[in-house]
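Hey, can you fold this?
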Amino acid sequence: MTARLVYFMGPSGAGKDSLLAWLRTQKPAAQGRIHWARRTISRNATPGAEEHESVSPEAFAALRQAQAFALHWQANGLGYGIRHAQLAPLAAGQWVLVNGSRAYLADALARWPDLLAVHITASPAVLRARLLARGRESAAMVESRVQRALQLQPPGGSVPIELHNDGALDDAGQRLLSALRQCPGWPE
C-alpha cells in the first residue's frame, strides 16, 4: 500500500466536515490504514462542529513560532494548523486525510508534491444558506465569505478531484468515495 496525503479544501459551508464525517462512517475496515488529521484552530470548540484542538490566538502564534505545525495558515481571522504528529502516519504507510485551505494549497504542494487535492464546493446560494444556519457570523460576514469563495479558486490542474456538494450528503459522499477508489493504493 502506498501512503498518501489527501488534502480536502473548499469554501466555508461547502460541507467538508460533513463529507469527512460521512467518509469516516463508510471506511470501518480501513480505519487502521487511514489517519484523520486533527486540526489546531484558534477558535473555541462548538457542539456539532469539527472536533479540533482549540487554542487562543496567542497560543496559536506561540505554537507557530515554536514550529509545532507541519502545515499552518490563516483564514477568516483564524489560525489553522496541522501538527507534525498528525502527518507522522504517512511514514508508517497510512493515508492521511487533512481538512486544508485553498489559499494554502500551493505551499502544501511545494512540501508534498504528490498530495491528492480534493476540492469541495457548492453554489453561492447553498453556501450562504449553510453559513447563515450555523449562526456563527453576521449576515455581512457570511456574504464576505461567499464572495471570497467565488474569488478564491485552486490553481488550474492542481486538483484531480472536484466535488460539487449542493444536494444530499449521501449523494456527494458516494461520489467522493467513488473518486477516491479510483486512486491507486486507496485502502479498502
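Oh, and this one too while you're at it.
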Amino acid sequence: MSTVVASMFTWPLGEDAALIPRTVAVAESYQALLEANHERLARWFPGFDRPPTPEGTRADLELRGQAWLDGSQLPLVVAVRAADGWQLAGAVNLLVNGPARSGEVGYWLDADFEGRGLVTRAVTAVLDHAFGRLGLERVELRTIPANERSRSVARRLGFTQEGVLRAAAAFADGRRDEVVYGLLAAEWHRPVSPAVGVEQP
C-alpha cells in the first residue's frame, strides 16, 4: 500500500510509530488507506456503506481540521515509520464536549498492522492528553457487541462497561446495539508496556 507521507508535526508512539494530524495535508494517503479498508470498516462502523471518494474524504478532513482548531475534536492518523516518511496505518479520534468536560474516543487500524499494540499505544496517548492537558473528567468508548477487538482494547485500558444502547447504531443493513464503556479521570492509569512518547511540535 503506497501511503507514505511527510509531516511537520508528529506525536511519537515509540521509535516505530507516531500520531499525525488528520487534515487535508494527508488527504491522498488517507484516501488510499480508506479504499483499502472500506469493506472491513463497513462491518464495524456506521457510515461506511458507500465507498470513499477523494472529494468526500477531502471535505471530511477539512471539517475535522476546523473542529481541531475550535477544540471540539482531536482527529489523528496512526502512522508507522517508513524509509522516506510515514506510512498510514489507521486512525484515532477524540470528540470533545468542553462544557461537560467529557469526550468520546474512537479508532480503527489496517489489518496488516494489527497485533503490534498500535491501537493501545495510540489510545493511551490520547487518553493522557484528554485527562491531562484537556482536563476532561470522563471519556466514553462505544462499539458494537460483535467487535471483540475493540472491546478488548477498552478492557485493557481500564474502561468499565456501563451498558448497551439498543439499536443505537444505524448501518446500511439495519440497526445494531452499541456497547458503552466509560473511563473517569480518577480511574486512568496508563498501561506500563506501551512506549508512548511526548508531543513535539
